[in-house]
Amino acid sequence: AELFPAGDRVLLWGELPRALVWDALTGERLCELQGHLARITVAAVFPDGQRVVTGSSERRILIWNTSSCAQLRQLNHNSGAASIAVMGIGRMLAMADAGGGVTTWDVDSGVMLRPLLQASRFSLQVMTFPPGDDDRLAIVSEFGVDIWNATSGKLLRRLGVPGRSSRSIVGAVIAPGGDVVAIHGHFGIDIWDTRSGKRLLEFQIGRPIFDVAFGPGRIMDPLGIGSGISPLRLP
User: Fold this and answer.
1) How far is residue 208 CA from its own chain's centroid?
2) Is there a contact between 49 and 59 (Cβ–Cβ < 8 Å)?
3) Contact, 19 vs 33, CB < 8 A?
4) 143: pLDDT strictly greater than 90
5) What's the pLDDT at 230?
6) 110 pLDDT exceeds 70?
7) Which residue has the higher pLDDT, 101 or 67?
8) Of 60, 59, 66, 68, nearest in space to 2 by CA
9) Which end of the chain has a smaller Cβ tally under 10 Å, C or N?
10) Which of 163, 175, 187 is nearest to 218 (CA)?
11) Are 39 and 54 in contact (CB under 8 A)?
């Protein structure tokens, strides 16, 4: 599920080849987005709140208008969708596929721009930076986080975790300002500067972590199994 930017609607998808848009306040179903032939595996909301994108294992990405519930565009690719993200103000899309590659598209033209990552660095997730930082794209793999300029196709930074297992990374999240990223394994979190590529902080949690979230005031919440994990404040 993903909440719309205004917080008034929510996008839901799951085991069926359709996605649903619901009014978050009244519980009314507003849209039923049908067009895929296989279950939807990934979806995202555009920053304007007027469009959403869905992807499935059938090698198609569909862009929808949430006011009319109509399909706007179809994008074809070579593998099932594993992760998808809308970049910046919504002019580009990035998708990590089931084969480990990452591809970007121009939303208005539907043109596939370039592959950014090959299967030799297996991708887990694609993450975007806040609007205004439209060219940078972060790709999470088992080995770290690669930050690319998606327009030029240039690799800007490669953030890893020195001295740890190359398969220790579970996930990552970018702070709201885009200046730092938290990379987490099963029992620890590392904070990296996304511009300089320097590791700033390291936290050893001591309990299994399955996700990390940033909140207001540079508070970071590690979401773990069991109780006793306190929010962490960044400098």
Assistant:
1) 22
2) no
3) yes
4) no
5) 63
6) yes
7) 67
8) 66
9) C
10) 175
11) no
